[in-house]
Design goal:
The complex is a heterodimer of chains A (about 80) and B (about 425).
Chain A: H1 5-17, H2 39-53, H3 68-79
Helix pairs in contact in A: 1-2, 1-3
Chain B: E1 11-20, E2 23-24, H1 26-35, E3 40-42, E4 62-64, H2 77-80, H3 85-101, E5 111-116, H4 122-132, H5 143-146, H6 151-159, E6 165-169, H7 175-188, E7 194-199, H8 206-214, H9 227-230, E8 243-244, E9 246-254, E10 265-274, H10 284-298, E11 307-309, H11 316-328, E12 335-336, H12 340-343, H13 350-364, E13 366-367, E14 389-390, E15 395-402, E16 406-414
Parallel strand pairs in B: 4-8, 5-6, 5-7, 11-12, 11-15
Antiparallel strand pairs in B: 1-2, 1-9, 1-10, 3-4, 7-9, 10-16, 13-14, 15-16
Helix pairs in contact in B: 3-6, 7-13, 10-11
Classes of the chains: A mainly alpha (about 80), B alpha/beta (about 425).
Chain lengths: ~80, ~425
C-alpha cells in the first residue's frame, strides 16, 4: 500500500481506545473485532480516525471492511486523501 | 405496627468510601474534618470558569475542587478513558467501600446499587457540546451512553460484581440521603442482602453556577475576596451555599447475614416528605415531619439523640428554617456542627457524604468544628465551633433537603 497514513491513524486510535494493545504489532490483516474491540469501540475508532483526517463518511459505508487494512483502504478511497 | 427490625431485618452499615476536595479516603477525610481544613478557592476546572468577558456578575465561582480521584490498578485503563469525572470519582469511592465491607465474599446476585443524583455530568457535557458545535459529525459514539447518569451504574457494575440491581435516584440535594434510605429499604424488603448507596459527584458547569447564582442560592458575592470565609452555615454572615466536589458511598446489609467484624452503625429510622412545590424553598413542616418519622421508626425520643448532622448549606432561609425545625422536634439539646462548612455543598453527594461524616465521627468519638461560625443564628444550640471536641455519640440524626420541596432524615445508632 503506497499510503499508510490512514492505516497508521487507525492503529493510533485503536491503541487509545484499547490500551491493552499497546505492545501489539498491527498488521492490515488484523480484525478489530478479533483484537477485542467491541462494536462501540470500533465505531469510536472509526470516528476518531475520520476526525483526524477531517473527512466525513457515513459509518454504514465502512461496515463491510473485514480487517484493518480493508478499513484503511475504504476510508482512503472514499475520502480521496 | 409490625417492626421490620423485630423480624430480624436489622440493617447495619459495613463499609464507607469517600472522595472529596479535602481528602480522598476515610483517613484523609476524617483528619481534614477534625482539623477543620478546607479547600475553598476560585474554581478552575475547564467548563466551570465563567464565560468571558468577565464582569462582576460573572466573576469566578467559589468552591472546592478535588484532586484527580485515585483509581486502583484493578480498574482497566480502557474503561477510564471515556469515564467522566463523576464516574471516576464513583469508581474510586466505591472501591474503598467495597473492600472495607469485604464484598468480594458476598453473592453478586444479592448485591444492589443505588446511585443518588441526576444530571450529574453537566460540565463534561458542556465541554463536549462546545467541542463538537461546529463538527457534529465527529461526535463520539460513546456519548450515546455517557450522557446518561445511569452510565455510572454501568461503570460500577462492570468493575465490581453487582448483579442484583442498579439504578439512579434523583432528589436534588437530598439525593445522597434518599439513596441510602432506598438501599436500606431494598435490604429490609429482602430483595437483596447488601446494597450500596452512592452519592454521585455533581459536576457543575458554569451554566449551573450562573443559574444558582442568579436564583440567589449560590454564594458568595459578599465574600468574593475571601474564599475561606465564604462558606458559613448557620452564621449570620451567610449568603448562600458554596459548592464542594464530593462523592461518598455507604454499604448497608442485613445484620443477620454475613458476619462482619465491626459494623459502623445500625439503621434505626428514616423519613421522607414533600412540600408540594417545585421551588427551592424549604419548610419547617416538611423538615419536622421527616425527623419525627425517623424517630418514630427508631422508637426513640428526641431526648435520646446525641448528635445532629444538619443539612446546613449556608442559605439564609434554609439555615433558619432548619434550626426552627430542629427546635420544634426537641433536638436543640443535641450536639451539632455543619459538615458543609468544611467540605462545601456536595449537592447530589451531600446526603451520603454527611452520613459518612457522621459515622466517622461516631467511630472517632470526636465531633468536627464548624468553620466560620462566628455569630450563630441561634446561640442556644450546643454547637461544636472552633475546635473538634471529644463526644461519645451513640445516636445521630442527619437531614438533607432538596429543591422541589424534598425533605429527608435518617437516624443511626452506633453498633
Amino acid at each position: 500500500m503506497p499510503d499508510t497514513r490512514v492505516f497508521d491513524l487507525i492503529v493510533e486510535h485503536t491503541r487509545e481506545v484499547v490500551p491493552e494493545l499497546e505492545g501489539h504489532r498491527f498488521a492490515p490483516s488484523d480484525s478489530l473485532r478479533d483484537l477485542g474491540a467491541n462494536s462501540i469501540d470500533r465505531a469510536e475508532i472509526i470516528v476518531m480516525t475520520l476526525e483526524s483526517l477531517s473527512v466525513s463518511i457515513p459509518l454504514v459505508e465502512l461496515a463491510d471492511a473485514k480487517n484493518m487494512g480493508e478499513l484503511a483502504d475504504l476510508i482512503h478511497d472514499k475520502s480521496a486523501v | 405496627m409490625t417492626s421490620l427490625r423485630s423480624e430480624g431485618r436489622d440493617v447495619v452499615v459495613t463499609g464507607l468510601g469517600v472522595t472529596t476536595a479535602v481528602g480522598q479516603g476515610k483517613d484523609a477525610f476524617v483528619a481534614a474534618l477534625l482539623e477543620g481544613r478546607h479547600a475553598f478557592g476560585s474554581m478552575q476546572r475547564p467548563g466551570r470558569l465563567p464565560p468571558a468577558p468577565s464582569t462582576d456578575a460573572t466573576a469566578a465561582f467559589l468552591g472546592a475542587e478535588m484532586e484527580e480521584p485515585s483509581l486502583p490498578g484493578s480498574i482497566a485503563a480502557r474503561s477510564v478513558r471515556t469515564a467522566s469525572l463523576s464516574a471516576r470519582a464513583a469508581l474510586a469511592t466505591l472501591h474503598e467501600a467495597w473492600h472495607e465491607a469485604g464484598l468480594d465474599e458476598a453473592d453478586p446476585f444479592r448485591i444492589g446499587l443505588v446511585v443518588g443524583g441526576s444530571n450529574v455530568q453537566q460540565r463534561e457535557l458542556t465541554l463536549l457540546h462546545a467541542r463538537h458545535a461546529d463538527r457534529p459529525e465527529f461526535l463520539r459514539p460513546t456519548y450515546g451512553m455517557g450522557f446518561m447518569d445511569s452510565d455510572l451504574c454501568g461503570f460500577c457494575t462492570e468493575q465490581f460484581p453487582i448483579r442484583g440491581f442498579a439504578h439512579t435516584l434523583g432528589g436534588a440535594s437530598a439525593s445522597g440521603l434518599l439513596a441510602v434510605l432506598q438501599a436500606v429499604r431494598a435490604v429490609q424488603s429482602g430483595e437483596v442482602d447488601v446494597c450500596i448507596a452512592l452519592g454521585a459527584l455533581m459536576d457543575l458547569s458554569y451554566w449551573e453556577c450562573l443559574a444558582f447564582r442568579a436564583m440567589g442560592a449560590m454564594g458568595s458575592a459578599r465574600w468574593a475576596d475571601d474564599p475561606a470565609a465564604a462558606c458559613r452555615p448557620f452564621d449570620r454572615g451567610h449568603d448562600g451555599f458554596v459548592f464542594g466536589e464530593a462523592c461518598a458511598a455507604v454499604v448497608v446489609e442485613r445484620a443477620d447475614g454475613r458476619r462482619h467484624p465491626a459494623p459502623y452503625a445500625r439503621f434505626r429510622g428514616g423519613g421522607r416528605a414533600l412540600d408540594g412545590t417545585r421551588n427551592p424553598h424549604p419548610s419547617v413542616e416538611g423538615e419536622v415531619a421527616v425527623v419525627q418519622a425517623a424517630l418514630r421508626e427508631a422508637g426513640l425520643s428526641a431526648s435520646a439523640i446525641d448528635y445532629v448532622n444538619p443539612h446546613g448549606t449556608g442559605s439564609p432561609t434554609g439555615d433558619a428554617v432548619e434550626l426552627q425545625a430542629l427546635a420544634r422536634c426537641g433536638l436543640d439539646h443535641a450536639r451539632i456542627n455543619a459538615t458543609k462548612s468544611i467540605t462545601g455543598h456536595g449537592l447530589t453527594a451531600a446526603g451520603a457524604l454527611e452520613i459518612v461524616a457522621t459515622l466517622l465521627q461516631m467511630r472517632e468519638g470526636k465531633l468536627h468544628p464548624t468553620r466560620n461560625l462566628v455569630d450563630p443564628l441561634d446561640e442556644t444550640f450546643p454547637w461544636v465551633r472552633e475546635k473538634a471536641e471529644d463526644c461519645a455519640v451513640r445516636t445521630a440524626v442527619s437531614l438533607s433537603m432538596g429543591f422541589g420541596g424534598v425533605s429527608a432524615a435518617i437516624c443511626l445508632e452506633k453498633c
